[in-house]
Amino acid sequence: MNLYNPHSIIKVAHRGVPSLVPENTIASYKHALTLNIDMLEIDIHRTRDNKLVIIHDPTTDRTSLEKGIIKNLTYKELEKYDVGKWKGESFVGERIPLFEDVLQLIKNVDIKLLIEVKQPEKYPGIEEQILKSIDENGINEEQIIIQSFNKKSIQKFQALRPGIKLGVLIKKKDKFISKSTIRKIGAYANYINPNYKIVTKRFVEAAHQSNMKVLPYTINDKQAAHDMLAIHVDGIITDYAQSLEEWLEE
Ligand code: G3P
Ligand code: CA
Fold first, then answer.
1. Which residue among 10, 65, 136, 240 sits deepest, i.e. has the most Cβ atoms within 10 Å of its Cβ?
2. Residue 50 lies in a domain
3. Which residue lies with its CA nearest to atom 2 of ligand 1?
4. Which residues form the catalytic set?
């Protein structure tokens, strides 16, 4: 029995296609754009000289052979870091992208950008700055969804730009999230995106009752994808965007 319509599932390439190409690099995003996906997910931090950059961790330690703390480095210093080599010689030369580079990459492409604002509490004014950059790069807000674990930051986005689509991320440790908390989030967010290990049918129903979509992260095998679809989540965030179609066909 078909429990879902594979065409209506929102397919999200998490940090590009990190199972094939180093995460959060332009090469990884370009690869994602060749696949049948609906959204591209990226992570934002800010440099010492206030440049918005795309990297998951607050440091370069995991994804570069050189150590560094993003908020303590200028972009000129940071752009020297190679974020491809740690995954193999064939990726040497990949650089930490600027947010505006990604905006230009997705401009006029039929895909949505799911922007995760990392630790916004460390970067005062980052909400205004992100919105300004979206506007200055001529991106229609219809193409954007902004998400964060930080609810206050998401509420600030809502106050600044009521029309833009927003998401709240939920950690695994928040397994016992109540229906009333979900309802409160639904007052300002359009998506509630939990660690897939805590998603239940009741969670999904509560989110839908509050008019939110559910995009669980990070689903990296077919069984987990099928388990999620059986409880009617709206999409799948994965490191294996190249496998999604195959997973959804069966
Ligand atoms: O998009 C959801 C997911 O990216 C959140 O967790 O740690 O992979 O950024 P993380
Ligand atoms: Ca993320």
1. 240
2. yes
3. 217
4. 14, 56
